[in-house]
Amino acid sequence: MCGIIAYIGKQKAVPILLEGLRQLEYRGYDSAGISVIQKEKIITLKAVGKVVELQNKIGERDFSGKIGIAHTRWATHGKPSDKNSHPHGDCEGNIFLVHNGIIENYQELKNILIKKKHKFLSETDSEVLAHLIEDFNKTLNFKKSVLEALKLVRGTYGLAIINKNEPDKIIIARNGSPLILGIGKDEFIVASDASAVVRHTDKVIYLGDNELAEITADDFEISNIKNKIISKKISKLNWTVEESKKGGFSHFMLKEIFQQPEVIGNGLRGRVERFLLEESVPMLGGLRMVEKRLRKIKKIVIVACGTSYYSGLVGEYMLEEYAGIPTEVEYASEFRYRKPILDSSTAVVAISQSGETADTLAAIREAKNKGALTLGIVNVVGSTIARETDAGTHTLSGPEIGVASTKAFTTQLVVLALWTLMLGRQRSMSNVMSKRIAQELKKIPKLIEGILKKSKEIQKIAKKYSSAKDFLYLGRKYNFPIALEGALKIKEISYVHAEGYATGEMKHGPIALIDENFPSIFICPKDSVYEKNISGMQEIKARGGKIIAIATVGDKEIARIADDVIYIPKTLEMLTPFVSVIPLQLFAYYFGVAKGYDVDKPRNLAKSVTVE
Ligand code: F6R
Asked: Residues 50, 66, 255, 607: which is the catalytic one?
C-alpha cells in the first residue's frame, strides 16, 4: 500500500528513484512524486496517474542530485491529485517527506499547527508530519526534530525525509509500515518493499517498529524512538532480479498463474518427502522449536484477509478432517475487535502473502497478548508477521507482483496440507494415510501443468461470456472456499459483480437472481458431494440459468447439464482446490483482458494493505 523509495550515494538519484517507483507501482498507482536535493535546493515533481506520467513530466530534464525520495500513492486521505501526492513539504520548502501509513490524530495536530500559522496545501494526513518536523527544527537539529515529532503522532508510518538545512542525509523511520534499508557499495537504497532494492544489493536491514535511521552517503546509524543507538542484523534478500520481471508474459498475473507448478514444487521439495518415510512424526523445519506445544494444541484459529482468508477456509476442512483439530477461520479485521477466547492451548495462525497486512498483524499481536501460540504461513521472508510470530513455514512462492493473488494462494494451500499431515501424525493419522496424501501432493505440479495447457480453451469460454454483468460461483465442502476465491478474482480484475456461495445455500436466496443473463460457475469435481452439486445445477438449469462447470476429467454426465465444461484432473478430495482454482484464475484473467483492463493494477486496489 503506497510505495516508498529513497536513494543516497554517488549516482544520480532521479533515474534510480524512477526505476524503483516502477518496481513499486503495484503497491499503489493513483499518483507519484519525487524530491531531489540539488545545488542546495529541493526540487519536487508530482503527477496524477501511473509512474509513466511522472516520467513524462520529468522528460529530458537532467537532475544531478544524488539524494532523493519518491513515492507512489494509494489514496487514503484526499483524492488523487498533484497537491495530495507525496512528497509533502513544510511552509518554507526546506523539509520534504514521503509517508506510508495513517496518522490517526492528524486533524488534532493540524489544528494546533494552523494556530501556529502553518500553511497546508493538501488534504492528507501525511503533510502534518512535514510541518510538525519544521516546528521542532526551529530549535532542534534534523534528527531530534523527527524524533520529537514522532512522539506526538498516533498511527502508522514508514517515512523517508530530507531537509535542505542538513542536505547530506536522509532520515527514515518506521512504525507499522515496512521499510527496508538496502546497503549497496557506496550507496544506500531505502524502500517499502524488497522488489525495489534487489537490483542494487541483496544486503538489507529490516527496520523495526519505533526505529529510525540517519543515512549519509557513506554511513548509517539506527536508533530507537528514545534516541538510543541500536545495532541491527544485516540480512540477505532471497529475491532475484529475474523474479521481478514479466519473463515474456503479457502480465505478471499470467506469469504467476503459469509459475504455479514450479513454486508448488518448491514448496513441497524437501518437505513432503519426510511424510513418505516410515518416520514417527516428521516435523517441518520452522516449527521444530514449538513441536511440544503443537502436540498440546486443542484449537486452531486462522486469521487472514482476502484470498489468504479463503486459503484458511480450505485449511479448516483439511485440519478438521485429517488432523482432528477444531479449527476456526476469522477475518483478521473482525478478530481484532472481538473478544476472542484464547489460551495457551490455542494456536492462532496468520496467513499472509505480504506478511505486512495491518489487520492480520494486529490479530496476531492480540493473540500473543492473550497467551496463544502464534504461527505464520507467510511468503515474504523478513516481513513483520514472519518476524513476530512464534514459529511458522514460508510459502516460497517468490515475489507476487500482480495485485490479484494467484500463486500465493496455492502455495498457502501447500503449507496447510503439510501442516495437516504433520499435526495429523502427531495425533491419530496413520502412516499409511499420510503417505497416501503426500504421494498425491507430489503429483499436484504435474496436474496443474496439464490444466495450464488448456488455457486457450478457457480463454474462449471467457470471451463467450464477456457480456455477462454478474456471476454466481458455487461449490461445496473443499470447493466452497474456491467458489469464494473465484468470485473475488473476477470482481477484482474485471469489475463485474460476482458472488461466491456454498451450493447448498443457493436455494436459500441467491437463486432468485438467476435468469438467462446471470451465469453460474459450478465447481463440481467427482467427490463426496458430487451428487449434491448436480442437484444444485439442475435447479439453476430449471430456471434458465447458464452453467459453466469445473468437472473431473471423464465426467460425461455433467456435459449434458452444463453449457460449458472445463475439465480438471482427478486427485484426492482434500487436494481438489489445487486444481479447481486454476481454471478460475485463468477465466478471471482472460475475462479482464478481454475487457481491456490492466489486470496487474486493478482500479482502487493495492498489493499490500498496510492500513486498517
Ligand atoms: C486478492 C488479494 C487480497 C489479499 C489480502 C491479504 O487477490 O490479493 O485479497 O489476499 O489483501 O493480503 P496478504 O496475503 O498479503 O495478507
From this structure: 607
214 and 279, same domain (yes or no): no
Number of structural domains in the chain: 3
pLDDT tens digits for range 234-250: 999 877 777 777 777 89
Three-state SS for 243-286 is HHCCCCCCCHHHHHHHCHHHHHHHHHCCCHHHHCCCCCCCCCHH
- Does 352 contact ligand 1 (Cβ within 6 A)? yes
User: Do 233 and 272 fall into the same domain?
Assistant: no
Q: Using DSSP bridges, classify how beta strands 187-191 and 3-9 pair: parallel, antiparallel or unpaired.
A: antiparallel
**Residue 581 grid cell:** 482454482
- Phi/psi region, residue 185 (left: phi>0; alpha: psi -120 to 50; beta: rest), is beta
**Mean pLDDT confidence for 566-590:** 98
CATH number at residue 75: 3.60.20.10
The mean pLDDT value for 81-96 works out to 94
55 domain residue, yes or no: yes
Q: Whole-prediction pTM value?
A: 0.83
Q: Domain range for residue 430?
A: 252-451
- Residue 608 CB less than 6 A away from ligand 1: yes
541 is catalytic: no
Between the CA of 223 and the centroid of ligand 1 the distance, in Å, is: 32
List beta partners, residue 497.
Answer: 470
Find out whether the beta carbon of 609 lies less than 6 Å from any atom of ligand 1. Answer: yes
Q: Residue 332 domain-assigned?
A: yes
pLDDT given at position 1: 62
Whole-number Å distance between alpha carbons of 489 and 125? 31
Residues 484 and 421 in one domain: no
- Is residue 187 within 6 Å of ligand 1 at its C-beta? no
Rounded mean pLDDT of 363-369? 95
For atom 10 of ligand 1, which residue has the closest CA? 307
The reply to whether 304 and 332 lie within a common domain is yes
pLDDT of 381 reads 84
Predicted confidence (pLDDT) at residue 24 exceeds the cutoff of 90? no
Do 439 and 488 lie in one domain? The reply is no
Coil, helix or strand for 356? coil
